[in-house]
């Protein structure tokens, strides 16, 4: 039996006895997908420290759509959605299987949002594979993506994530992938290895304080947090995956921060672990 046919026969495991953690990953440059650095090492360390998931569901900044979609193919394509990087990065293929069964289960459990299965248009973009290949380098765990509906506000994405909690009880690792502070137009190459503008550091600290205090309402309405927030989030796609991670949190669960570093002046790698 071929490897491909073996994966196609793997059913979704409905009960694992373990509620998986949830993560928000600051993914940064696509080069993190092939570099051995402080960020990629931390991603790998977290994967070793948490239970082995039955599947990984990624909410990536780079699948921004009208409506909500979920990949539902047996083997999602590795998407190289960037330019100007070394050929080594374009040569990467992350051959993880998908899971049509998990896609169907996600469509079933979410009642307040229509989720449309995508059988061929998308795959795993760099918001997904650059992170997950460090966590699960053998590519032997199903990986899916859930798109971000650009017509919805922060609260709507948070509420959608509340419904996804059931998947955590089925052993699914749900991972938001973006950056809390992400303004590429203001990038400083002098600070590319570390350092942030005052407004970026201020907003990063504000975000962390609100997250650790469990005060999520201002985070859903980040537009009201002042001009610094508008500099930190000139467009919402890299910020909104955070709403999914926070929406997955239950009252009793602990929250921790990792990879808390500003780079390039206007970008933070700050990441969050729930549970």
From TrEMBL:
Q: Which SUPFAM superfamilies match?
A: LigB-like
Against Gene3D superfamilies, the record matches this protein to:
LigB-like
Task: Kindly list the organism's lineage.
Answer: Bacteria, Pseudomonadati, Bacteroidota, Sphingobacteriia, Sphingobacteriales
The similarity comment for this entry is:
Belongs to the DODA-type extradiol aromatic ring-opening dioxygenase family.
Matches recorded under CDD domains: 45_DOPA_Dioxygenase
* Swiss-Prot/TrEMBL cofactor(s): Zn(2+)
Domain of life (superkingdom): Bacteria
**Species of the source:** Pedobacter duraquae
Query: GO: which molecular function terms?
Result: ferrous iron binding; oxidoreductase activity, acting on single donors with incorporation of molecular oxygen, incorporation of two atoms of oxygen; zinc ion binding
The record, for Pfam families, names: LigB
Instruction: Cite the Extradiol ring-cleavage dioxygenase class III enzyme subunit B domain residue spans from the record.
Output: 36-251
Put simply, this protein is called: 4,5-DOPA dioxygenase extradiol
Arranged from A to Z, the UniProt key words for this protein are: Dioxygenase, Metal-binding, Oxidoreductase, Zinc
């Amino acid at each position: 039996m071929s490897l491909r046919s073996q994966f196609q026969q793997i059913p979704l495991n409905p009960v694992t006895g373990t509620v998986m953690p949830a993560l928000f990953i600051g993914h940064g440059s696509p080069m993190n997908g092939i570099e051995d650095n402080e960020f990629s090492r931390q991603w790998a360390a977290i994967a070793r420290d948490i239970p082995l998931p039955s599947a990984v569901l990624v909410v990536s900044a780079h699948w921004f759509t009208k409506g909500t979609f979920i990949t539902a193919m047996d083997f999602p394509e590795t998407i190289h959605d960037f330019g100007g990087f070394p050929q080594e990065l374009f040569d990467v293929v992350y051959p993880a299987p998908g899971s049509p069964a998990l896609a169907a289960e996600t469509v079933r459990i979410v009642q307040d949002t229509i989720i449309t299965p995508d059988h061929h248009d998308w795959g795993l973009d760099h918001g997904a594979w650059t992170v997950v290949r460090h966590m699960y380098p053998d590519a032997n765990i199903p990986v899916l993506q859930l798109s971000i509906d650009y017509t919805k506000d922060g609260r709507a994405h948070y509420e959608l994530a509340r419904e996804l909690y059931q998947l955590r009880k089925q052993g699914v690792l749900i991972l938001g992938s973006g950056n809390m502070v992400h303004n590429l137009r203001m990038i400083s190459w002098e600070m590319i290895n570390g350092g942030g503008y005052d407004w970026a550091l201020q907003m990063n600290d504000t975000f962390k304080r609100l997250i650790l205090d469990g005060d999520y309402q201002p985070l859903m309405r980040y537009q009201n947090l002042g001009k610094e927030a508008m500099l930190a989030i000139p467009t919402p796609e890299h910020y909104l995956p955070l709403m999914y991670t926070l929406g997955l949190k239950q009252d009793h669960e602990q929250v921790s921060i990792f990879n808390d570093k500003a780079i390039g002046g206007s970008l933070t790698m700050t990441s969050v672990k729930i549970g």
